[in-house]
Write a structure and sequence with these properties.
The protein is an alpha+beta fold and 275 residues long. The chain is built from four helices and 17 strands. The protein folds into two domains: 2-112, Diaminopimelate Epimerase, Chain A, domain 1 (Roll); 136-260, Diaminopimelate Epimerase, Chain A, domain 1. Bound molecules: 2,6-diaminopimelic acid. 2,6-diaminopimelic acid binds next to β4, α2 and α4. Homodimer.
Length: 275
Amino acid sequence: MHGAGNDFVVIDLISQFLNLKPAHIRFIADRQRGIGCDQVLLVEPPTQPENDFRYRIYNADGSESGQCGNGARCFARFVREKSLTWKRELQVETRNGTMALTVAQDGRINANLGAPIFDTTQIPFQPEDSEDNAEYGLTVAGNTHRIGALSMGNPHAVLTVDSVADAPVSTLGPLIESHPAFPERVNVGFMELVSKNEIRLRVFERGVGETEACGSGACAAAVHGIRRGLLDNAVTVHLPGGKLSVTWSGADNDDVWLAGPTASVFEGVVKLREG
Ligand SMILES: N[C@H](CCC[C@H](N)C(=O)O)C(=O)O
Protein backbone atom coordinates (compact mmCIF):
# COMPACT_ATOMS: atom_id res chain seq x y z
CA MET A 1 0.00 0.00 0.00
CA HIS A 2 1.03 3.63 -0.24
CA GLY A 3 -0.13 7.06 0.76
CA ALA A 4 1.14 9.64 -1.77
CA GLY A 5 4.06 7.37 -2.60
CA ASN A 6 5.08 6.67 1.04
CA ASP A 7 4.89 2.90 0.78
CA PHE A 8 4.14 0.17 3.28
CA VAL A 9 3.92 -3.56 3.70
CA VAL A 10 0.88 -4.10 5.94
CA ILE A 11 0.68 -7.42 7.79
CA ASP A 12 -2.52 -8.88 9.26
CA LEU A 13 -1.51 -10.33 12.65
CA ILE A 14 -5.13 -10.95 13.62
CA SER A 15 -5.78 -13.96 11.41
CA GLN A 16 -2.19 -15.20 11.73
CA PHE A 17 0.63 -15.01 14.28
CA LEU A 18 4.24 -14.04 13.50
CA ASN A 19 7.04 -13.20 15.87
CA LEU A 20 8.76 -10.60 13.69
CA LYS A 21 12.31 -9.61 14.62
CA PRO A 22 14.15 -6.50 13.32
CA ALA A 23 16.03 -8.70 10.83
CA HIS A 24 12.67 -9.82 9.38
CA ILE A 25 11.50 -6.20 9.09
CA ARG A 26 14.73 -5.24 7.28
CA PHE A 27 14.32 -8.20 4.92
CA ILE A 28 10.68 -7.34 4.10
CA ALA A 29 11.58 -3.68 3.51
CA ASP A 30 14.63 -4.48 1.33
CA ARG A 31 13.80 -3.28 -2.20
CA GLN A 32 16.24 -5.73 -3.87
CA ARG A 33 16.14 -8.84 -1.67
CA GLY A 34 12.73 -8.57 -0.03
CA ILE A 35 9.45 -6.93 -0.94
CA GLY A 36 10.45 -3.26 -0.48
CA CYS A 37 8.80 -0.48 1.53
CA ASP A 38 9.46 2.58 3.71
CA GLN A 39 7.71 1.08 6.72
CA VAL A 40 6.22 -2.28 7.80
CA LEU A 41 2.86 -1.85 9.57
CA LEU A 42 1.45 -4.53 11.91
CA VAL A 43 -2.31 -4.95 12.38
CA GLU A 44 -2.96 -6.58 15.75
CA PRO A 45 -5.82 -7.15 18.21
CA PRO A 46 -6.26 -4.32 20.74
CA THR A 47 -4.96 -4.74 24.28
CA GLN A 48 -8.02 -2.83 25.63
CA PRO A 49 -11.57 -3.93 24.65
CA GLU A 50 -12.77 -0.38 23.96
CA ASN A 51 -10.30 -0.09 21.08
CA ASP A 52 -10.56 -1.67 17.63
CA PHE A 53 -6.95 -2.56 16.78
CA ARG A 54 -3.32 -2.18 17.83
CA TYR A 55 -1.03 -0.50 15.24
CA ARG A 56 2.74 -0.98 15.28
CA ILE A 57 5.14 0.80 12.90
CA TYR A 58 8.64 -0.29 11.89
CA ASN A 59 11.01 1.68 9.65
CA ALA A 60 12.99 -0.02 6.89
CA ASP A 61 16.06 -0.16 9.19
CA GLY A 62 14.05 -2.20 11.71
CA SER A 63 13.56 0.63 14.23
CA GLU A 64 10.10 1.11 15.74
CA SER A 65 8.27 4.44 15.55
CA GLY A 66 5.41 5.80 17.63
CA GLN A 67 3.60 7.36 14.68
CA CYS A 68 3.11 7.09 10.92
CA GLY A 69 0.41 9.34 9.52
CA ASN A 70 0.29 7.98 5.97
CA GLY A 71 0.51 4.49 7.38
CA ALA A 72 -2.46 5.11 9.68
CA ARG A 73 -4.64 6.06 6.73
CA CYS A 74 -3.54 2.95 4.81
CA PHE A 75 -4.17 0.91 7.99
CA ALA A 76 -7.81 2.07 8.05
CA ARG A 77 -8.26 1.13 4.40
CA PHE A 78 -6.59 -2.26 4.92
CA VAL A 79 -8.75 -3.41 7.86
CA ARG A 80 -11.92 -2.58 5.94
CA GLU A 81 -10.72 -4.15 2.67
CA LYS A 82 -9.76 -7.33 4.56
CA SER A 83 -13.16 -7.30 6.33
CA LEU A 84 -11.45 -7.13 9.72
CA THR A 85 -14.04 -4.45 10.55
CA TRP A 86 -17.03 -2.71 8.98
CA LYS A 87 -16.69 0.40 11.18
CA ARG A 88 -15.91 3.85 9.75
CA GLU A 89 -14.79 5.36 13.07
CA LEU A 90 -11.78 3.44 14.42
CA GLN A 91 -9.88 3.78 17.69
CA VAL A 92 -6.41 2.33 17.20
CA GLU A 93 -3.74 1.73 19.87
CA THR A 94 -0.28 3.06 19.11
CA ARG A 95 2.90 3.05 21.19
CA ASN A 96 1.93 6.46 22.61
CA GLY A 97 -1.79 5.96 23.26
CA THR A 98 -4.74 5.78 20.87
CA MET A 99 -5.53 7.53 17.60
CA ALA A 100 -8.85 8.09 15.80
CA LEU A 101 -9.22 7.16 12.14
CA THR A 102 -12.33 8.05 10.15
CA VAL A 103 -13.35 6.63 6.77
CA ALA A 104 -15.81 8.92 4.94
CA GLN A 105 -18.54 7.64 2.63
CA ASP A 106 -16.48 8.85 -0.36
CA GLY A 107 -13.53 6.75 0.86
CA ARG A 108 -11.40 9.67 2.07
CA ILE A 109 -9.60 8.73 5.29
CA ASN A 110 -8.75 11.22 8.02
CA ALA A 111 -6.22 10.48 10.75
CA ASN A 112 -6.16 12.33 14.07
CA LEU A 113 -2.49 12.50 15.05
CA GLY A 114 -3.29 14.11 18.40
CA ALA A 115 -1.96 17.36 19.78
CA PRO A 116 1.60 18.37 18.83
CA ILE A 117 4.20 18.08 21.59
CA PHE A 118 6.65 20.97 22.06
CA ASP A 119 8.10 19.91 25.42
CA THR A 120 11.71 19.16 24.45
CA THR A 121 12.04 16.35 27.00
CA GLN A 122 9.15 14.52 25.29
CA ILE A 123 10.34 15.00 21.71
CA PRO A 124 13.11 14.15 22.84
CA PHE A 125 15.43 17.05 21.95
CA GLN A 126 18.32 18.60 23.88
CA PRO A 127 18.57 22.17 22.53
CA GLU A 128 21.83 24.13 22.50
CA ASP A 129 19.93 27.35 23.14
CA SER A 130 16.48 28.58 24.13
CA GLU A 131 13.51 28.78 21.74
CA ASP A 132 13.17 32.03 19.77
CA ASN A 133 9.90 32.48 17.81
CA ALA A 134 9.35 28.70 17.81
CA GLU A 135 12.84 28.01 16.47
CA TYR A 136 16.13 26.73 17.91
CA GLY A 137 19.68 27.09 16.67
CA LEU A 138 21.27 23.74 15.81
CA THR A 139 24.96 23.46 14.94
CA VAL A 140 25.58 20.87 12.23
CA ALA A 141 29.09 20.33 10.84
CA GLY A 142 30.14 23.80 11.96
CA ASN A 143 27.10 25.63 10.56
CA THR A 144 24.14 26.84 12.61
CA HIS A 145 20.66 26.11 11.24
CA ARG A 146 17.29 27.43 12.57
CA ILE A 147 14.92 24.53 13.21
CA GLY A 148 11.48 23.86 14.62
CA ALA A 149 11.44 20.84 16.93
CA LEU A 150 8.27 18.97 17.92
CA SER A 151 6.73 15.53 18.24
CA MET A 152 3.62 14.18 16.50
CA GLY A 153 4.09 10.95 18.41
CA ASN A 154 7.44 10.76 16.64
CA PRO A 155 10.23 13.34 16.60
CA HIS A 156 10.48 16.02 13.87
CA ALA A 157 12.93 18.80 13.02
CA VAL A 158 11.58 21.36 10.52
CA LEU A 159 13.80 23.69 8.47
CA THR A 160 12.30 26.55 6.42
CA VAL A 161 14.02 26.84 3.02
CA ASP A 162 13.59 29.14 0.00
CA SER A 163 13.22 26.20 -2.38
CA VAL A 164 12.69 22.51 -1.65
CA ALA A 165 14.12 21.73 -5.09
CA ASP A 166 17.49 23.10 -3.98
CA ALA A 167 17.28 21.91 -0.35
CA PRO A 168 20.28 19.83 0.89
CA VAL A 169 18.04 16.89 1.81
CA SER A 170 20.56 14.14 1.05
CA THR A 171 23.49 15.87 2.77
CA LEU A 172 22.00 17.82 5.69
CA GLY A 173 19.13 15.35 6.24
CA PRO A 174 21.25 12.45 7.54
CA LEU A 175 23.44 14.77 9.64
CA ILE A 176 20.38 16.12 11.48
CA GLU A 177 18.65 12.67 11.58
CA SER A 178 21.51 11.32 13.71
CA HIS A 179 22.44 14.58 15.49
CA PRO A 180 23.31 14.02 19.17
CA ALA A 181 20.75 16.70 20.18
CA PHE A 182 18.10 14.10 19.20
CA PRO A 183 18.82 11.05 21.40
CA GLU A 184 16.21 8.93 19.55
CA ARG A 185 17.20 10.40 16.14
CA VAL A 186 14.70 12.56 14.22
CA ASN A 187 12.69 12.97 11.00
CA VAL A 188 13.92 16.04 9.09
CA GLY A 189 11.50 18.21 7.09
CA PHE A 190 12.53 20.89 4.57
CA MET A 191 9.58 23.29 4.17
CA GLU A 192 9.09 25.95 1.47
CA LEU A 193 6.29 28.48 2.08
CA VAL A 194 4.09 28.91 -1.01
CA SER A 195 1.20 30.88 0.49
CA LYS A 196 -0.68 31.15 3.81
CA ASN A 197 -2.39 27.84 2.93
CA GLU A 198 0.25 25.96 0.95
CA ILE A 199 3.74 24.60 1.47
CA ARG A 200 6.11 22.40 -0.44
CA LEU A 201 7.88 19.79 1.68
CA ARG A 202 10.58 17.15 1.41
CA VAL A 203 11.31 14.81 4.33
CA PHE A 204 14.41 12.82 5.20
CA GLU A 205 12.75 10.20 7.38
CA ARG A 206 14.36 8.64 10.45
CA GLY A 207 15.29 5.05 9.71
CA VAL A 208 14.52 5.29 5.98
CA GLY A 209 15.98 8.32 4.17
CA GLU A 210 14.07 10.65 1.86
CA THR A 211 10.54 9.39 1.22
CA GLU A 212 8.03 10.52 -1.39
CA ALA A 213 5.73 11.66 1.39
CA CYS A 214 5.60 11.73 5.20
CA GLY A 215 2.27 12.20 6.94
CA SER A 216 3.54 13.07 10.40
CA GLY A 217 6.19 15.23 8.71
CA ALA A 218 3.46 17.12 6.84
CA CYS A 219 1.70 17.67 10.17
CA ALA A 220 4.91 18.77 11.90
CA ALA A 221 5.78 21.27 9.14
CA ALA A 222 2.25 22.72 9.00
CA VAL A 223 2.10 23.02 12.81
CA HIS A 224 5.49 24.74 12.85
CA GLY A 225 4.38 27.22 10.18
CA ILE A 226 1.03 27.92 11.90
CA ARG A 227 2.79 28.40 15.24
CA ARG A 228 5.13 30.98 13.66
CA GLY A 229 2.15 32.82 12.15
CA LEU A 230 3.27 31.98 8.60
CA LEU A 231 0.35 29.63 7.78
CA ASP A 232 -3.43 29.57 8.32
CA ASN A 233 -5.17 26.61 10.00
CA ALA A 234 -5.75 24.52 6.86
CA VAL A 235 -2.60 23.73 4.90
CA THR A 236 -2.13 21.91 1.61
CA VAL A 237 1.22 20.13 1.70
CA HIS A 238 2.82 19.38 -1.69
CA LEU A 239 5.31 16.50 -1.39
CA PRO A 240 7.22 14.76 -4.19
CA GLY A 241 4.73 11.86 -4.11
CA GLY A 242 1.52 13.86 -3.89
CA LYS A 243 -0.66 16.19 -1.84
CA LEU A 244 -1.70 15.90 1.82
CA SER A 245 -4.05 18.13 3.83
CA VAL A 246 -3.33 19.18 7.41
CA THR A 247 -5.67 21.08 9.72
CA TRP A 248 -4.84 22.41 13.19
CA SER A 249 -6.56 25.20 15.14
CA GLY A 250 -3.26 26.60 16.41
CA ALA A 251 -4.21 25.89 20.02
CA ASP A 252 -1.42 23.81 21.57
CA ASN A 253 -3.80 21.23 23.06
CA ASP A 254 -5.89 20.76 19.90
CA ASP A 255 -5.50 17.72 17.67
CA VAL A 256 -3.87 17.75 14.24
CA TRP A 257 -5.82 16.08 11.41
CA LEU A 258 -4.26 14.57 8.29
CA ALA A 259 -6.10 13.67 5.06
CA GLY A 260 -4.83 12.38 1.75
CA PRO A 261 -4.82 9.55 -0.77
CA THR A 262 -4.32 5.84 -0.10
CA ALA A 263 -3.82 2.95 -2.52
CA SER A 264 -3.68 -0.83 -2.26
CA VAL A 265 -1.17 -2.11 -4.78
CA PHE A 266 -0.42 -5.78 -4.19
CA GLU A 267 -1.22 -8.71 -1.89
CA GLY A 268 0.89 -11.79 -1.39
CA VAL A 269 2.74 -14.25 0.81
CA VAL A 270 6.29 -13.68 2.08
CA LYS A 271 8.56 -16.51 3.18
CA LEU A 272 10.48 -15.51 6.31
CA ARG A 273 13.53 -17.55 7.20
CA GLU A 274 13.76 -18.24 10.94
CA GLY A 275 15.95 -15.29 11.91
N1 LIG B 1 10.16 7.48 9.91
C1 LIG B 1 9.16 7.82 10.93
C2 LIG B 1 7.99 6.83 10.91
C3 LIG B 1 7.13 6.95 9.65
C4 LIG B 1 6.61 8.34 9.46
C5 LIG B 1 5.99 8.64 8.09
N2 LIG B 1 6.09 7.59 7.10
C6 LIG B 1 4.57 9.15 8.24
O1 LIG B 1 3.77 9.02 7.30
O2 LIG B 1 4.29 9.78 9.30
C7 LIG B 1 9.83 7.76 12.32
O3 LIG B 1 10.81 7.03 12.50
O4 LIG B 1 9.31 8.45 13.22
